[in-house]
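B., you asked whether I could sanity-check this one before it goes into the benchmark set. Here's the sequence:
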Amino acid sequence: ELKKASEKLVDVDSYYVKKYAYLKAHGFFTKPKPTEFAVLEESVVEDNIKNIKQVVFEVTDSCNLSCTYCAFGELYDGYDERNCKQIDTNKAIHLLKFIFENKPKRENDKLAISFYGGEPLLNMPFIKQIVELSKELNLSKQFALEYTMTTNTTLLHKYMDFLVANNFRLLISLDGNEKCHSYRVF
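And here's what the prediction gave me:
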């Protein structure tokens, strides 16, 4: 529907015409501008690590769906393409160990460990490894660990026991309305 609105076709639902106009007016369909990074002082990094509340791992850019609303979809010119990449487990472990070593133990301190992708459940071995490592590292810190994941739920049935056992909170990616479920493409 957004594509029809972009082509100014006549048979487009007015909701999508307005949605497309809003997104276009705010630069949503333009090529991304290069990001400029400033040099960070070591003390700033240390301070941020000490106060970190959440670490988010992009588990994979692979997905088992081809939803039309996805940022990797055809509506978004200039965005990255999917390359079936998976996170570097060694780098993720190094980061997690660094956080646990440098984040001070405080009463009732929380740490959320989050997973997203693509579809994170396509790299379940990584998720299991990070959950087990974080539990082990947490024995001395005693942070209130919380695990979260953004998922399209198509593989949930395979890993439900693990997710329940580890009290995962899920954000479910689902789009479409009663009339049109064509945004989610299997």
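One thing to flag: Residues 121 and 158 are 9 Å apart (CA to CA). Otherwise nothing jumped out at me.
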